[in-house]
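Exercise 7b. C-alpha cells:
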C-alpha cells in the first residue's frame, strides 16, 4: 500500500484527449452538467432513452426505507427484449452480436437475429423444465455462446440466474446452489483451457451429491466431448432440447425491481455473499456506462471484454451492457497464452477489435513477456483501452497505452464492484484529461466521498474510506436471504441514523489536488488476486478443515503479477507430528486441499508450516506482521504482541 501511495504522489503525467477523438466522442461535458442540475432526472432520462419499457415508469427513486432502494419501480420491462428483440425489430438482426472464438481455434459468428432465436428456444426449454418467474437457475459453463444465451433465457422468463465461475470446486458450487435453492443447473460436459478439456459436468454431479436437493434438472451443452456420467431422470442435452424447441416466445414485462441475478462474492467472513441485482436500474447504468465510458459506436466498433461471465465484469460488460447497446463483440473461451503467447493479439487482429477491456494482472503478465509479442500483430484497429479489477500502476498504464494502444489512444481505469453493478469511477474518454494510476472521477450521476473512520470528510492528500453518498440505479438490492448482513456490511459503518446511510465500499482511497481519486486497496480482510476477490477467512476455514491443521492465518502479500498472492501460515496438530514429518510435503498437500475445496484461484502461493502465530493479548492474529514476513520486509511494531519474541521464532521457520 505504501508503495502505491508513493507512486500516486509521484505521478504527474496527464494526457489531454486528442481533438480527433474528442470530436467523435459519445460523451460530453453536458452529461456532468445535467447530472449536477438534477441527478434523479438525469438517471430517469437515461432509463427512458437507453431502454425500452413495456410500461413507462413515473417514479424515479424511492429511498423511503434506506438502505432498500427502489428505482423506476412502477415501470415494467423485459431485460432480454432490451438486449435482443428490440434490435432485431429496429432492423439490426443481421448485425453480428458475438464473434465467438474457441480456444482450439474453432469459431462462430452469431447475429442478433440468431441470438434472439436461440434465447427464445432456451426460454421455451426452461419453461418445459418448470422454470417460472422468480425461480433460481445456476449456470456453470465455460466461455461459450450458450453461457450468454442461458443468462438471457433465464432473464427473459423473469427467473434469476446465479452464474458460478467454471473454476470453482464442487463444494463451492454446492453451497451456491443450496443458498439460492436453484431448481435447474446449466452446464457443459467440459470446456477448453490451456490446451486441455477441463470437466464441468462431473463437478456438477459431485456438487449435487453434496447439495440439499433443490435441483430437478441439469441441462448439458456438448463442448468438451469428454466422458461424463449421466442420470437419465435428471440430465438433458442442450442439443436435444434447446436446439429442437420452438423459436416462438412471447416475452412479458416485469417490474423494474424484479430480481435479475444473484452473484456470489467473497466478503470478510468465510461465507460468500449472494449479491442481488434487479432489472431496470441495473440495466440502465450498465447500458449508460457501456456507451459513455467505452465510447461505444455500435455501428462500427468491435468490442472485447476479456472477463469471464462468472464475474460481475462478465455480467455487466460482456452480457448486459454491450447487448443492451446493440454492440458487436468478441467472446473468447480460453487462456491468453494458448496455444501461443500472442493469442490475444492474434484475436484483436483477426476481428479488428477497436475497444479492449481487461485487467491489470493480464497487462502485467504481457509486460513480463515483452513488447515483441504484441508487435508481431496488427493492433492498429484499437482506439480505446479499459482496465478493471485492481489499481493499475502507472507503469502498466503507460505500457498498455504505448505497446498495445500505439501511444495515443485513451486508457480508462474503471473502479466498481460486484455490489455496485456497474462502473462508478472512471474518466470519460474524449472529455477527461487522463492521469495514469488514478481511476479519476465519479461517472455522471454518482456521488462519491472519502471519509475517515468517524465519517468526517477527508480533505486534501490524506487517505480515507471510499463511500457512495447517494443511491445509484445499479446498486445491489441486498444479500440473498440475509437482509441483516446487507445492512451491517455496507450501510452501518458510520452509524445507523438515516443521514449516515452511506454505502461503505471496503476500499481505501485518496483525492489529489485536481480532485482525482486514487484507489489504495481493500481496508478489510479481502484479498485481490488477479482482480478476483478472495476472503482470508474463507481460505483459513478451508485450511483448518484439513485433518492436519490446528490453526491457520492467511494474508494477501503483494505480488508483481497477480497484484496480491495468498500466503498461509499453518500450525499442524501435535497429534500429526509423527505422520507429517516433511514440512514441504505438508505445505504441498494443504495448497492442493484449498484448490479442491474452493477452486484453483484460491490455491495459496505459499504455505508456511510454523509452530506459533503472532497474537495480541486478546488473542487476535496480527496479520500485519505476517504480511511483513510474506513480503520479505523488516517486521513492524510488535509491542502489542502477547509474546514479543514470537516473530523471531516464526521468521526463522519461514526462512
Ligand atoms: C469490477 C470488480 C471489487 C474490488 C473493489 C476494489 C477492486 C476493482 C478497481 C479496483 C482499483 C480499479 N477494484 N476495480 N481497485 N482500481 N479500477 O472488479 O468487482 O470482483 O467485486 O471486485 O476490486 O478493491 O472493491 P469485484
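Sequence design result:
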Amino acid at each position: 500500500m505504501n508503495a502505491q501511495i508513493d507512486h500516486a504522489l509521484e505521478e504527474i503525467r496527464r494526457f489531454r484527449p486528442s481533438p480527433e477523438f474528442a470530436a467523435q466522442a459519445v460523451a460530453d461535458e453536458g452529461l456532468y452538467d445535467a447530472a449536477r442540475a438534477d441527478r434523479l432526472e438525469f438517471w430517469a432520462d437515461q432509463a427512458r432513452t437507453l431502454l425500452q419499457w413495456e410500461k413507462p415508469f413515473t417514479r424515479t427513486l424511492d429511498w423511503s426505507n434506506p438502505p432498500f432502494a427502489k428505482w423506476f419501480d412502477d415501470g415494467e420491462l423485459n431485460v432480454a427484449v432490451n438486449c435482443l428483440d428490440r434490435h432485431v425489430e429496429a432492423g439490426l438482426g443481421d448485425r453480428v452480436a458475438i464473434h465467438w472464438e474457441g480456444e482450439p481455434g474453432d469459431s462462430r459468428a452469431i447475429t442478433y437475429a440468431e441470438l434472439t432465436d436461440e434465447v427464445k428456444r432456451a426460454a421455451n426449454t426452461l419453461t418445459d423444465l418448470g422454470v417460472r418467474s422468480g425461480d433460481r437457475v445456476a449456470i456453470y459453463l465455460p466461455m461459450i455462446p450458450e453461457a450468454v444465451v442461458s443468462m438471457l433465457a433465464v432473464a427473459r422468463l423473469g427467473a434469476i440466474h446465479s452464474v458460478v465461475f467454471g473454476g470453482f470446486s464442487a463444494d463451492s458450487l454446492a453451497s451456491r446452489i443450496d443458498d439460492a435453492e436453484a431448481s435447474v443447473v446449466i452446464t457443459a460436459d467440459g470446456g477448453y483451457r490451456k490446451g486441455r478439456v477441463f470437466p464441468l459436468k462431473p463437478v456438477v454431479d459431485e456438487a449435487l451429491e453434496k447439495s440439499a436437493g433443490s435441483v430437478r434438472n441439469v441441462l448439458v451443452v456438448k463442448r468438451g466431448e469428454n466422458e461424463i456420467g449421466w442420470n437419465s431422470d435428471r440430465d438433458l442435452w442442450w442439443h436435444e432440447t434447446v436446439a429442437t424447441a420452438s423459436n416462438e416466445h412471447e416475452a412479458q414485462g416485469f417490474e423494474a425491481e424484479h430480481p435479475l441475478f444473484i452473484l456470489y462474492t467473497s466478503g470478510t467472513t468465510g461465507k460468500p455473499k449472494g449479491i442481488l441485482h434487479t432489472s431496470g436500474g441495473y440495466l440502465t447504468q450498465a447500458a449508460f456506462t457501456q456507451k459513455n465510458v467505452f465510447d461505444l459506436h455500435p455501428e462500427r466498433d468491435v468490442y472485447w471484454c476479456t472477463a469471464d461471465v462468472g464475474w460481475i465484469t462478465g455480467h455487466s460488460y460482456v452480457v448486459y451492457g454491450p447487448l443492451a447497446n446493440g454492440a458487436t463483440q468478441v467472446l473468447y473461451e480460453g487462456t491468453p497464452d494458448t496455444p501461443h503467447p500472442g493469442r490475444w493479439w492474434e484475436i484483436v487482429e483477426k476481428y479488428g477489435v477497436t475497444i479492449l477491456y481487461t485487467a491489470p494482472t493480464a497487462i502485467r503478465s504481457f509486460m513480463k513477456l515483452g513488447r515483441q509479442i504484441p508487435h508481431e500483430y496488427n493492433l492498429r484497429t484499437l482506439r480505446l483501452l479499459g482496465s478493471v479489477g485492481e489499481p493499475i500502476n502507472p507503469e502498466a498504464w503507460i505500457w498498455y497505452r504505448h505497446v498495445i494502444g500505439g501511444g495515443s489512444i485513451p486508457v480508462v481505469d474503471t473502479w466498481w464492484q460486484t455490489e455496485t453493478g456497474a462502473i462508478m469511477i472512471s474518466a470519460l474518454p474524449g472529455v477527461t484529461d487522463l492521469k495514469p494510476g488514478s481511476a479519476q472521477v465519479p461517472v455522471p450521476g454518482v456521488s462519491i466521498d472519502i471519509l475517515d473512520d468517524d465519517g468526517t470528510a477527508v480533505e486534501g492528500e490524506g487517505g480515507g474510506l471510499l463511500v457512495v453518498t447517494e443511491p445509484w440505479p445499479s446498486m445491489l438490492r441486498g444479500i440473498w436471504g440475509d437482509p441483516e448482513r446487507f445492512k451491517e456490511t455496507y450501510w452501518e459503518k458510520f452509524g445507523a441514523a438515516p443521514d449516515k446511510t452511506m454505502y461503505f465500499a471496503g476500499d481505501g482511497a485518496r483525492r489529489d489536488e485536481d480532485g482525482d481519486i486514487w484507489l489504495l486497496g481493500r481496508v478489510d480482510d479481502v484479498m485481490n488476486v488477479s482482480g478476483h476477490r478472495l476472503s482470508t477467512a474463507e481460505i483459513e476455514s478451508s485450511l483448518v478443515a484439513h485433518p492436519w491443521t490446528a490453526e491457520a492465518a492467511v494474508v494477501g502479500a503483494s505480488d508483481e503479477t497477480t497484484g496480491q498472492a495468498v500466503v498461509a501460515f499453518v500450525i499442524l496438530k501435535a497429534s500429526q507430528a509423527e505422520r507429517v514429518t516433511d514440512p514441504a510435503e505438508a505445505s504441498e498437500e494443504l495448497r492442493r486441499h484449498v484448490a479442491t475445496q474452493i477452486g484453483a484461484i484460491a490455491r495459496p502461493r505459499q504455505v508456511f508450516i510454523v509452530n506459533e502465530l503472532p497474537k495480541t493479548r486478546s488473542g487476535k492474529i496480527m496479520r500485519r506482521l505476517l504480511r511483513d514476513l510474506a513480503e520479505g520486509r523488516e517486521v513492524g511494531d510488535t509491542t502489542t504482541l502477547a509474546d514479543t519474541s514470537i516473530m523471531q521464532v516464526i521468521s526463522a521457520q519461514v526462512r
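Instructor comment: The pocket of 6R9 is lined by residues 265, 311-313, 388-391, 413-418, 439, 505-507, 519, 522, 528, 531, 533 (CB under 6 Å). The radius of gyration is 24 Å.
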